[in-house]
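Morning, I've got a small favour to ask if you have a moment. It would help a lot if you went through both lines with me. Thanks so much in advance, here it is.

***
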Amino acid sequence: MPLRLITTLFLTAALAATATTATASARPAAGPLVVHRGQAVKVSVRTPSKGDCLAEARYADGSRQDSGVKHARNGVVSWTLRVPNTAPLGYAEWTVRCGVTWQRTGRWIVKTVTSQAPAAAPHVIVDRQGFSQRPDSYGTGSSVSYGMLLKNTSQTQDTTNVYLLINFATAGGELIGTVTKTVALIPAGGTIAIGDAIQMRTQAPVSNLEVTIKVNSFEPAKPRILPHFVNVAILPNQNDTGWVGEVDGEIVNDTSPQTLTLAKLSIVLLDATGKIVGGGTAMTFSPLPSGSRMVFLAQTGFTAVPISTAVTALISVEPTYTSA
């Protein structure tokens, strides 16, 4: 519910209580409430009078704001007054008169509208990137296995929808491939791994990756529940000696009381010096109850990476949990 509506409803109830209190001498009147320029304020009172009723607001500079004439229905009469955008700041007094002698009063404090500047979008950068390219055995094409580490430099905002445009460029600047991705989450201050592969229709050497990043949405940082990975191994391709065939390991649901029903894995491979040499993807679909573990097999994206260069696997996960 918007702040303005919350304030108006609260003020309505409090003004009604103030007016009602005025008829009972044993109960103290409520204190003045804060309203802001431009807000709608509802004044509602109970009255025994059957005569004409009129509400009036008088502001700090003496200016007045009158309502139309109304009659009480079931002993209640109400008006909605909108505080002028130019109303003077400070105390304002409202008065309700019914008939010749019945009258009730109350006060509010007029303040200027305060607003907070929207939080700046978090800045996401490519911390590291790398790839391996392998010509096809037949034809004129090639495959490129690539990976990158994306870092959210904000310490207070999680990114929740990050668009990636990844171009594959030659040394002369010509683009020979493009892929796009959407990253669901990069936690505040966090770094995630993005790995995959692309099939080229050329064997022209890729010189570098051009990465464009657009943060589409973000929200205040909050704790995130993620599963863990253990016993991770990089294995050679049994039918294609000398190249990475898959990354295997165990996924452990030890951080959530819920069942892990889906896990999207993104994997980046590093050499012995920490240089990125490729990447790949995998998904798990079998329900994984809380406190249990199971094997995962990542077999997509690695065939261009020499097994001799791949030493370490970094894994990021996008999990889906259910209470079932």
In short: Helices lie at 3-21. Residues 266 and 316 are 5 Å apart (CA to CA).
